[in-house]
Amino acid sequence: MKTTRSSELFERAKLVMPGGVNSPVRAYRSVGMTPLFIERAKGNRIWDADGNEYIDFVGSWGPMILGHADDDVLAAIGERMQKGLSFGACAELEVELAELVVENIPHVERIRMVNSGTEATMSALRIARGYTGRNKIVKFEGCYHGHSDGLLVKAGSGAMTFGNPDSAGVTKGAAADTLVASYNDLDSVKALFAGNPGEIACVIVEPVAANMGVVPPAEGFLAGLRELCTKEGALLIIDEVITGFRLAFGGACQSLGIEPDLVTYGKIIGGGMPVGAYGGKKEIMETVSPTGPVYQAGTLSGNPIAMTAGLVTLKKLLADPSVYVHLNDMGERLAAGLREITGCTVNQIGSLVGLFLTDQPVRSYADAAKADTEKFTALFRGLLEEGVYIAPSPFESMFISAPFTEADVDQVLAAYRKVWK
Ligand code: KE4
Protein backbone atom coordinates (compact mmCIF):
# COMPACT_ATOMS: atom_id res chain seq x y z
CA MET A 1 0.00 0.00 0.00
CA LYS A 2 1.13 3.56 -0.65
CA THR A 3 2.53 5.26 2.45
CA THR A 4 4.37 8.17 0.85
CA ARG A 5 2.58 10.82 2.88
CA SER A 6 3.32 9.04 6.17
CA SER A 7 6.99 8.77 5.16
CA GLU A 8 7.16 12.47 4.27
CA LEU A 9 5.52 13.42 7.56
CA PHE A 10 7.86 11.17 9.51
CA GLU A 11 10.92 12.82 7.94
CA ARG A 12 9.56 16.22 9.05
CA ALA A 13 8.65 14.87 12.50
CA LYS A 14 12.17 13.56 13.16
CA LEU A 15 13.56 17.06 12.63
CA VAL A 16 11.53 18.51 15.50
CA MET A 17 10.56 15.66 17.87
CA PRO A 18 12.79 12.94 19.44
CA GLY A 19 12.38 9.88 17.22
CA GLY A 20 9.62 11.78 15.40
CA VAL A 21 7.05 10.77 18.00
CA ASN A 22 5.34 11.89 21.19
CA SER A 23 5.32 8.37 22.61
CA PRO A 24 8.00 5.76 21.83
CA VAL A 25 5.80 2.81 20.82
CA ARG A 26 4.37 4.88 17.95
CA ALA A 27 7.79 4.90 16.26
CA TYR A 28 7.28 1.28 15.13
CA ARG A 29 10.88 0.48 16.11
CA SER A 30 10.05 -3.06 17.21
CA VAL A 31 8.63 -3.79 13.76
CA GLY A 32 11.36 -1.91 11.90
CA MET A 33 9.01 0.22 9.83
CA THR A 34 8.24 3.85 9.12
CA PRO A 35 5.22 4.61 11.28
CA LEU A 36 1.84 5.33 9.75
CA PHE A 37 0.43 8.80 10.36
CA ILE A 38 -3.28 8.54 11.06
CA GLU A 39 -5.43 11.23 9.51
CA ARG A 40 -8.94 10.37 10.73
CA ALA A 41 -11.02 7.69 12.39
CA LYS A 42 -14.66 6.64 12.77
CA GLY A 43 -16.08 3.65 14.63
CA ASN A 44 -13.57 0.79 14.46
CA ARG A 45 -11.91 2.18 11.33
CA ILE A 46 -8.91 4.46 10.91
CA TRP A 47 -7.44 6.04 7.77
CA ASP A 48 -3.78 6.94 7.37
CA ALA A 49 -2.38 10.05 5.69
CA ASP A 50 -2.29 8.22 2.35
CA GLY A 51 -5.97 7.32 2.61
CA ASN A 52 -5.45 3.63 3.44
CA GLU A 53 -8.26 2.21 5.61
CA TYR A 54 -7.70 -0.20 8.50
CA ILE A 55 -9.77 -2.08 11.04
CA ASP A 56 -8.35 -0.69 14.27
CA PHE A 57 -7.34 -2.89 17.23
CA VAL A 58 -5.38 -0.15 19.02
CA GLY A 59 -8.22 2.31 19.66
CA SER A 60 -5.73 4.89 20.93
CA TRP A 61 -4.45 2.16 23.32
CA GLY A 62 -7.86 1.64 24.91
CA PRO A 63 -9.84 4.88 25.30
CA MET A 64 -11.99 4.43 22.19
CA ILE A 65 -14.21 1.65 23.57
CA LEU A 66 -17.29 3.23 21.92
CA GLY A 67 -15.40 3.49 18.65
CA HIS A 68 -13.71 6.58 17.26
CA ALA A 69 -15.54 9.90 16.82
CA ASP A 70 -18.67 8.76 18.63
CA ASP A 71 -21.49 11.07 17.47
CA ASP A 72 -22.77 11.77 20.98
CA VAL A 73 -19.30 12.53 22.35
CA LEU A 74 -18.49 14.87 19.45
CA ALA A 75 -21.82 16.68 19.76
CA ALA A 76 -21.39 17.20 23.51
CA ILE A 77 -17.82 18.49 23.12
CA GLY A 78 -18.87 20.80 20.26
CA GLU A 79 -21.59 22.33 22.38
CA ARG A 80 -19.49 22.56 25.56
CA MET A 81 -16.46 24.20 23.93
CA GLN A 82 -18.58 27.27 23.11
CA LYS A 83 -18.49 28.03 26.84
CA GLY A 84 -14.71 27.89 27.09
CA LEU A 85 -12.05 25.19 27.24
CA SER A 86 -10.47 25.37 30.68
CA PHE A 87 -10.89 27.61 33.73
CA GLY A 88 -8.44 26.26 36.30
CA ALA A 89 -11.31 26.58 38.74
CA CYS A 90 -14.05 24.39 40.17
CA ALA A 91 -16.69 23.47 37.60
CA GLU A 92 -19.88 21.38 37.66
CA LEU A 93 -18.75 18.84 35.08
CA GLU A 94 -15.90 17.50 37.22
CA VAL A 95 -18.40 17.01 40.06
CA GLU A 96 -20.77 15.19 37.69
CA LEU A 97 -18.08 12.79 36.48
CA ALA A 98 -16.86 12.17 40.03
CA GLU A 99 -20.45 11.51 41.18
CA LEU A 100 -21.01 9.08 38.30
CA VAL A 101 -17.99 7.01 39.35
CA VAL A 102 -18.60 7.19 43.12
CA GLU A 103 -22.29 6.32 42.76
CA ASN A 104 -21.62 3.31 40.53
CA ILE A 105 -18.34 1.86 41.84
CA PRO A 106 -18.64 0.94 45.54
CA HIS A 107 -14.90 0.86 46.30
CA VAL A 108 -14.49 4.45 45.09
CA GLU A 109 -15.70 6.78 47.82
CA ARG A 110 -13.54 9.72 46.71
CA ILE A 111 -11.82 10.35 43.37
CA ARG A 112 -9.29 12.89 42.10
CA MET A 113 -9.03 13.72 38.38
CA VAL A 114 -5.60 14.11 36.78
CA ASN A 115 -4.43 14.14 33.16
CA SER A 116 -2.91 10.74 32.45
CA GLY A 117 -2.55 7.23 33.76
CA THR A 118 1.02 8.05 34.75
CA GLU A 119 -0.17 10.88 36.97
CA ALA A 120 -2.82 8.62 38.47
CA THR A 121 -0.43 5.83 39.47
CA MET A 122 2.33 8.23 40.56
CA SER A 123 -0.14 10.01 42.84
CA ALA A 124 -1.63 6.80 44.22
CA LEU A 125 1.84 5.59 45.23
CA ARG A 126 2.55 8.89 46.96
CA ILE A 127 -0.71 8.62 48.88
CA ALA A 128 0.08 5.05 49.90
CA ARG A 129 3.43 6.21 51.29
CA GLY A 130 1.88 9.24 52.98
CA TYR A 131 -0.98 7.22 54.44
CA THR A 132 1.11 4.29 55.75
CA GLY A 133 4.29 6.20 56.56
CA ARG A 134 6.22 3.47 54.76
CA ASN A 135 8.64 3.91 51.85
CA LYS A 136 8.77 0.72 49.80
CA ILE A 137 6.41 -0.34 47.02
CA VAL A 138 5.94 -3.63 45.19
CA LYS A 139 5.31 -3.85 41.45
CA PHE A 140 5.40 -6.80 39.07
CA GLU A 141 7.86 -7.54 36.30
CA GLY A 142 6.17 -6.97 32.96
CA CYS A 143 3.49 -4.67 34.37
CA TYR A 144 3.55 -1.07 33.18
CA HIS A 145 2.06 1.75 35.19
CA GLY A 146 3.30 4.81 33.28
CA HIS A 147 6.68 6.52 33.32
CA SER A 148 7.13 7.95 36.84
CA ASP A 149 10.64 7.28 38.13
CA GLY A 150 9.81 4.77 40.84
CA LEU A 151 7.83 2.63 38.38
CA LEU A 152 10.43 2.53 35.60
CA VAL A 153 12.12 -0.32 37.40
CA LYS A 154 12.87 -3.87 36.41
CA ALA A 155 13.55 -6.85 38.58
CA GLY A 156 16.91 -6.71 40.23
CA SER A 157 18.88 -9.85 40.98
CA GLY A 158 18.76 -11.85 44.17
CA ALA A 159 16.02 -12.94 46.51
CA MET A 160 15.39 -9.43 47.77
CA THR A 161 14.60 -8.52 44.19
CA PHE A 162 15.37 -4.87 44.71
CA GLY A 163 14.58 -2.83 41.65
CA ASN A 164 17.12 -1.57 39.18
CA PRO A 165 16.39 1.48 37.00
CA ASP A 166 14.76 0.50 33.71
CA SER A 167 15.55 3.85 32.12
CA ALA A 168 18.44 6.28 31.99
CA GLY A 169 17.76 9.26 34.18
CA VAL A 170 16.13 7.17 36.90
CA THR A 171 18.48 7.25 39.84
CA LYS A 172 19.36 4.25 41.96
CA GLY A 173 17.82 6.20 44.79
CA ALA A 174 14.54 6.53 42.93
CA ALA A 175 14.54 2.79 42.25
CA ALA A 176 15.80 1.77 45.68
CA ASP A 177 12.36 1.65 47.27
CA THR A 178 10.78 -0.32 44.44
CA LEU A 179 10.63 -4.06 44.93
CA VAL A 180 9.79 -6.27 41.97
CA ALA A 181 7.80 -9.50 42.17
CA SER A 182 6.72 -11.99 39.50
CA TYR A 183 3.17 -11.76 38.15
CA ASN A 184 0.93 -14.66 39.20
CA ASP A 185 3.54 -15.74 41.75
CA LEU A 186 2.22 -15.06 45.27
CA ASP A 187 5.29 -16.61 46.88
CA SER A 188 7.48 -13.92 45.30
CA VAL A 189 5.32 -11.30 47.03
CA LYS A 190 5.37 -13.13 50.35
CA ALA A 191 9.18 -13.23 50.16
CA LEU A 192 9.29 -9.45 49.69
CA PHE A 193 7.05 -8.85 52.69
CA ALA A 194 9.16 -11.27 54.74
CA GLY A 195 12.34 -9.53 53.62
CA ASN A 196 10.99 -6.03 54.32
CA PRO A 197 8.79 -6.33 57.42
CA GLY A 198 6.74 -3.22 58.13
CA GLU A 199 8.36 -1.30 55.25
CA ILE A 200 6.05 -1.90 52.29
CA ALA A 201 3.49 0.85 51.70
CA CYS A 202 1.64 -0.80 48.84
CA VAL A 203 1.45 -3.36 46.10
CA ILE A 204 0.47 -2.01 42.68
CA VAL A 205 -0.79 -4.47 40.10
CA GLU A 206 -2.53 -4.62 36.74
CA PRO A 207 -5.52 -6.88 37.58
CA VAL A 208 -5.16 -8.24 34.06
CA ALA A 209 -1.63 -7.69 32.82
CA ALA A 210 -1.97 -6.09 29.39
CA ASN A 211 1.48 -4.62 28.85
CA MET A 212 3.21 -7.95 28.25
CA GLY A 213 0.55 -9.06 25.85
CA VAL A 214 -2.56 -10.15 27.79
CA VAL A 215 -1.88 -12.25 30.90
CA PRO A 216 -4.98 -12.79 33.07
CA PRO A 217 -4.52 -13.31 36.83
CA ALA A 218 -4.16 -16.94 37.91
CA GLU A 219 -6.92 -18.33 40.14
CA GLY A 220 -6.44 -16.91 43.63
CA PHE A 221 -3.65 -14.48 42.68
CA LEU A 222 -5.56 -11.24 43.22
CA ALA A 223 -7.36 -12.61 46.30
CA GLY A 224 -3.98 -13.64 47.65
CA LEU A 225 -2.62 -10.13 47.15
CA ARG A 226 -5.68 -8.71 48.91
CA GLU A 227 -5.16 -11.02 51.89
CA LEU A 228 -1.41 -10.34 52.06
CA CYS A 229 -1.83 -6.55 51.93
CA THR A 230 -4.52 -6.62 54.62
CA LYS A 231 -2.39 -8.82 56.87
CA GLU A 232 0.76 -6.73 56.35
CA GLY A 233 -0.91 -3.31 56.64
CA ALA A 234 0.00 -2.38 53.06
CA LEU A 235 -2.41 -0.84 50.54
CA LEU A 236 -3.50 -2.77 47.45
CA ILE A 237 -3.50 -0.46 44.43
CA ILE A 238 -5.30 -1.90 41.43
CA ASP A 239 -4.17 -0.18 38.24
CA GLU A 240 -7.29 -0.14 36.07
CA VAL A 241 -5.96 2.29 33.47
CA ILE A 242 -6.61 -0.36 30.81
CA THR A 243 -9.26 -2.56 32.49
CA GLY A 244 -11.32 0.23 34.08
CA PHE A 245 -14.76 0.63 32.43
CA ARG A 246 -13.58 -1.98 29.88
CA LEU A 247 -14.08 -5.40 31.55
CA ALA A 248 -17.20 -4.05 33.28
CA PHE A 249 -18.27 -0.58 34.31
CA GLY A 250 -16.55 -1.29 37.62
CA GLY A 251 -13.55 -2.69 35.77
CA ALA A 252 -11.65 -5.80 36.77
CA CYS A 253 -12.43 -5.12 40.44
CA GLN A 254 -16.08 -5.73 39.61
CA SER A 255 -15.65 -8.53 37.07
CA LEU A 256 -13.02 -10.40 39.09
CA GLY A 257 -14.39 -9.52 42.56
CA ILE A 258 -11.34 -7.79 44.05
CA GLU A 259 -11.55 -5.02 46.69
CA PRO A 260 -8.77 -2.42 46.22
CA ASP A 261 -7.66 0.21 48.71
CA LEU A 262 -6.91 2.55 45.81
CA VAL A 263 -7.69 2.24 42.13
CA THR A 264 -6.25 4.15 39.20
CA TYR A 265 -7.96 5.03 35.93
CA GLY A 266 -7.01 6.51 32.57
CA LYS A 267 -7.90 6.00 28.90
CA ILE A 268 -11.69 5.29 28.84
CA ILE A 269 -12.50 7.71 31.70
CA GLY A 270 -11.46 10.52 29.34
CA GLY A 271 -13.25 9.16 26.27
CA GLY A 272 -10.21 10.05 24.15
CA MET A 273 -9.34 13.28 25.96
CA PRO A 274 -6.43 13.43 28.46
CA VAL A 275 -7.90 12.22 31.75
CA GLY A 276 -6.52 10.01 34.49
CA ALA A 277 -7.92 9.53 37.97
CA TYR A 278 -7.24 7.82 41.25
CA GLY A 279 -9.76 6.96 43.93
CA GLY A 280 -10.65 4.75 46.81
CA LYS A 281 -11.66 4.76 50.44
CA LYS A 282 -12.52 8.19 51.89
CA GLU A 283 -10.13 7.76 54.81
CA ILE A 284 -7.20 7.09 52.48
CA MET A 285 -8.11 9.66 49.80
CA GLU A 286 -8.41 12.46 52.36
CA THR A 287 -4.66 12.13 52.85
CA VAL A 288 -4.26 14.18 49.65
CA SER A 289 -4.08 17.99 49.61
CA PRO A 290 -5.96 20.09 50.54
CA THR A 291 -7.52 17.72 53.12
CA GLY A 292 -4.23 16.03 53.97
CA PRO A 293 -0.46 16.31 53.82
CA VAL A 294 0.17 14.54 50.48
CA TYR A 295 0.56 17.10 47.71
CA GLN A 296 -0.76 16.56 44.19
CA ALA A 297 -1.98 19.18 41.69
CA GLY A 298 -2.63 19.85 37.98
CA THR A 299 -3.43 22.86 35.81
CA LEU A 300 -5.78 21.06 33.44
CA SER A 301 -7.13 18.48 35.88
CA GLY A 302 -10.91 18.15 35.51
CA ASN A 303 -11.13 20.57 32.59
CA PRO A 304 -14.65 20.85 31.17
CA ILE A 305 -13.90 19.50 27.68
CA ALA A 306 -12.17 16.37 28.95
CA MET A 307 -14.87 15.87 31.56
CA THR A 308 -17.51 16.15 28.85
CA ALA A 309 -15.88 13.44 26.71
CA GLY A 310 -15.49 11.19 29.75
CA LEU A 311 -19.01 11.79 31.01
CA VAL A 312 -20.73 11.00 27.72
CA THR A 313 -18.57 7.91 27.26
CA LEU A 314 -19.21 6.55 30.74
CA LYS A 315 -22.94 7.40 30.64
CA LYS A 316 -23.30 5.43 27.38
CA LEU A 317 -21.47 2.44 28.89
CA LEU A 318 -23.61 2.61 32.04
CA ALA A 319 -26.85 2.95 30.05
CA ASP A 320 -26.22 -0.17 28.00
CA PRO A 321 -24.45 -2.91 29.99
CA SER A 322 -25.11 -5.32 27.14
CA VAL A 323 -22.10 -3.70 25.47
CA TYR A 324 -19.86 -5.72 27.81
CA VAL A 325 -21.51 -8.96 26.71
CA HIS A 326 -21.01 -7.95 23.08
CA LEU A 327 -17.37 -7.02 23.66
CA ASN A 328 -16.70 -10.37 25.31
CA ASP A 329 -18.51 -12.25 22.53
CA MET A 330 -16.33 -10.52 19.93
CA GLY A 331 -13.25 -11.24 22.03
CA GLU A 332 -14.09 -14.92 22.30
CA ARG A 333 -14.84 -15.16 18.56
CA LEU A 334 -11.53 -13.52 17.66
CA ALA A 335 -9.54 -15.61 20.14
CA ALA A 336 -11.05 -18.90 18.98
CA GLY A 337 -10.34 -18.02 15.35
CA LEU A 338 -6.75 -17.00 16.07
CA ARG A 339 -6.10 -20.25 17.97
CA GLU A 340 -7.46 -22.29 15.08
CA ILE A 341 -5.43 -20.38 12.45
CA THR A 342 -2.13 -20.07 14.28
CA GLY A 343 -2.02 -22.97 16.74
CA CYS A 344 -0.52 -20.39 19.13
CA THR A 345 -1.42 -19.31 22.66
CA VAL A 346 -4.16 -16.68 22.73
CA ASN A 347 -5.16 -15.15 26.07
CA GLN A 348 -8.51 -13.37 26.09
CA ILE A 349 -10.61 -11.70 28.73
CA GLY A 350 -13.53 -9.54 27.59
CA SER A 351 -12.40 -7.22 24.79
CA LEU A 352 -8.69 -7.75 25.53
CA VAL A 353 -7.01 -10.33 23.29
CA GLY A 354 -3.33 -11.29 23.27
CA LEU A 355 -1.79 -13.56 20.62
CA PHE A 356 1.58 -14.97 21.68
CA LEU A 357 3.73 -16.53 18.96
CA THR A 358 4.38 -19.65 21.03
CA ASP A 359 2.36 -22.80 21.66
CA GLN A 360 3.29 -22.76 25.35
CA PRO A 361 1.03 -21.30 28.06
CA VAL A 362 1.77 -17.65 28.91
CA ARG A 363 1.15 -16.86 32.58
CA SER A 364 4.08 -14.58 33.42
CA TYR A 365 6.54 -12.10 31.96
CA ALA A 366 9.13 -14.85 31.59
CA ASP A 367 6.62 -16.88 29.52
CA ALA A 368 5.68 -13.86 27.40
CA ALA A 369 9.32 -13.03 26.71
CA LYS A 370 9.74 -16.40 24.96
CA ALA A 371 7.30 -15.45 22.16
CA ASP A 372 8.77 -15.17 18.65
CA THR A 373 9.19 -11.43 18.08
CA GLU A 374 10.75 -11.88 14.60
CA LYS A 375 7.66 -13.70 13.39
CA PHE A 376 5.54 -10.94 14.92
CA THR A 377 7.19 -8.35 12.65
CA ALA A 378 6.25 -10.29 9.52
CA LEU A 379 2.71 -10.76 10.84
CA PHE A 380 2.32 -7.06 11.69
CA ARG A 381 3.45 -5.97 8.24
CA GLY A 382 1.31 -8.52 6.44
CA LEU A 383 -1.79 -7.53 8.40
CA LEU A 384 -1.28 -3.87 7.52
CA GLU A 385 -1.28 -4.83 3.84
CA GLU A 386 -4.62 -6.57 4.51
CA GLY A 387 -6.06 -3.49 6.21
CA VAL A 388 -5.77 -4.72 9.79
CA TYR A 389 -4.08 -2.41 12.31
CA ILE A 390 -2.75 -4.07 15.46
CA ALA A 391 -0.28 -2.62 17.96
CA PRO A 392 3.28 -2.34 16.57
CA SER A 393 4.58 -4.47 19.45
CA PRO A 394 4.06 -8.09 20.52
CA PHE A 395 3.71 -6.95 24.12
CA GLU A 396 0.46 -5.05 23.75
CA SER A 397 -3.17 -6.08 23.78
CA MET A 398 -5.67 -6.09 20.93
CA PHE A 399 -8.47 -3.73 22.00
CA ILE A 400 -11.93 -4.54 20.62
CA SER A 401 -14.38 -1.63 20.51
CA ALA A 402 -18.18 -1.70 20.59
CA PRO A 403 -18.72 -1.16 16.82
CA PHE A 404 -17.06 -4.53 16.04
CA THR A 405 -19.43 -6.99 14.37
CA GLU A 406 -19.06 -10.70 13.72
CA ALA A 407 -18.43 -9.82 10.08
CA ASP A 408 -15.56 -7.51 11.13
CA VAL A 409 -14.01 -10.28 13.23
CA ASP A 410 -14.40 -12.77 10.40
CA GLN A 411 -12.78 -10.29 7.98
CA VAL A 412 -9.85 -9.95 10.37
CA LEU A 413 -9.55 -13.71 10.72
CA ALA A 414 -9.51 -14.05 6.94
CA ALA A 415 -6.60 -11.58 6.88
CA TYR A 416 -4.72 -13.61 9.50
CA ARG A 417 -5.40 -16.81 7.52
CA LYS A 418 -3.97 -15.16 4.39
CA VAL A 419 -0.90 -13.75 6.12
CA TRP A 420 -0.09 -16.57 8.52
CA LYS A 421 2.91 -18.65 7.48
P1 KE4 B 1 -0.58 7.07 30.35
O1 KE4 B 1 0.33 7.94 31.18
O2 KE4 B 1 0.08 6.60 29.07
O3 KE4 B 1 -1.95 7.74 30.11
O4 KE4 B 1 -0.94 5.78 31.20
C1 KE4 B 1 0.10 4.99 31.73
C2 KE4 B 1 -0.42 3.59 32.00
C3 KE4 B 1 -0.72 3.23 33.30
N1 KE4 B 1 -1.18 1.99 33.60
C4 KE4 B 1 -1.37 1.07 32.61
C5 KE4 B 1 -1.89 -0.29 32.98
C6 KE4 B 1 -1.10 1.39 31.26
O5 KE4 B 1 -1.28 0.47 30.29
C7 KE4 B 1 -0.62 2.68 30.94
C8 KE4 B 1 -0.29 3.10 29.52
N2 KE4 B 1 -0.55 2.14 28.49
C9 KE4 B 1 0.28 2.25 27.28
C10 KE4 B 1 -0.13 1.13 26.32
N3 KE4 B 1 -0.03 -0.16 26.87
C11 KE4 B 1 0.20 3.60 26.67
C12 KE4 B 1 0.71 3.69 25.24
C13 KE4 B 1 1.94 4.56 25.12
O6 KE4 B 1 2.78 4.50 26.03
O7 KE4 B 1 2.05 5.29 24.09
Task: Please provide a written account of the structure.
By secondary structure, the protein is α/β, with parallel strands linked by helices. It folds into two domains: 4-69 and 321-419, Aspartate Aminotransferase, domain 1, CATH 3.90.1150; 71-319, Aspartate Aminotransferase, domain 2. The protein has helices spanning 4-16, 71-80, 92-104, 117-132, 172-176, 186-195, 221-232, 251-256, 282-285, 304-319, 322-342, 365-368, 373-385, 406-419, and strands at residues 38-42, 45-48, 53-56, 110-114, 136-140, 153-155, 163-165, 178-181, 200-205, 235-239, 262-265, 276-280, 345-349, 352-356, 388-389, 398-399. The radius of gyration is 21 Å and the shape is globular. The model has no long low-confidence stretch (mean pLDDT 96). Bound molecules: ligand KE4. The site of ligand KE4 has 18 residues, from α4. Ligand KE4 is lined by residues 23, 25, 61, 116-118, 121, 144-146, 206, 211, 239, 241-242, 266, 276, 396.
Q: What is the secondary structure topology, with strand pairs?
A:
Layout: H1 4-16, E1 38-42, E2 45-48, E3 53-56, H2 71-80, H3 92-104, E4 110-114, H4 117-132, E5 136-140, E6 153-155, E7 163-165, H5 172-176, E8 178-181, H6 186-195, E9 200-205, H7 221-232, E10 235-239, H8 251-256, E11 262-265, E12 276-280, H9 282-285, H10 304-319, H11 322-342, E13 345-349, E14 352-356, H12 365-368, H13 373-385, E15 388-389, E16 398-399, H14 406-419
Parallel strand pairs: 3-15, 5-8, 5-9, 9-10, 10-11
Antiparallel strand pairs: 1-2, 2-3, 4-12, 6-7, 11-12, 13-14, 14-16
Helix pairs in contact: 2-10, 3-10, 6-7, 11-14
